[in-house]
Specification:
Order of helices and strands: HHHHH
Number of strands: 0
Distance between the termini: 68 Å
Number of helices: 5
Structural class: mainly alpha
Strand content: under 5%
Number of domains: 1
Radius of gyration: 19 Å
Length: 112
């Protein structure tokens, strides 16, 4: 008899095996994964709109501006980082929003 615990154990084993192959350390794998994610988000945009409308009562415009466009921009940002090799050695993969906020905070602190 196949139960949920066996299913979970099997999936966890597959995931551990996949990560033990170190495929995710390959830069081209990471870039391809981000590109696939971006493509899926674009393909599922209407479903995302519907979910955000149902859960948060957001219009399509608001959903795109405050959710989808930000995620797509972050994906593009991280693809550029991976392609350029920036911050790979020190593991700095903070979001572009965080980096901009940090820069603004430093500027404001310098003014006071």
């Amino acid at each position: 008899m196949h139960n949920i615990a066996d299913e979970i154990t099997s999936k966890v084993a597959k995931i551990k095996n996949f990560f033990s192959l170190n495929e995710t350390k390959n830069i081209s794998y990471r870039i391809d994964s981000l590109k696939r994610l971006k493509k899926i988000i674009k393909l599922k945009e209407e479903e995302i709109f519907d979910a955000l409308n149902e859960d948060l009562e957001k219009s399509n415009f608001e959903s795109y501006i405050t959710e989808i466009s930000l995620v797509l921009k972050e994906i593009d940002y991280h693809i550029v980082i991976l392609k350029d090799g920036q911050n790979l050695r020190n593991g700095d993969f903070r979001s572009s929003c965080f980096l901009h906020a940090e820069k603004l905070l430093r500027s404001l602190t310098a003014l006071s």
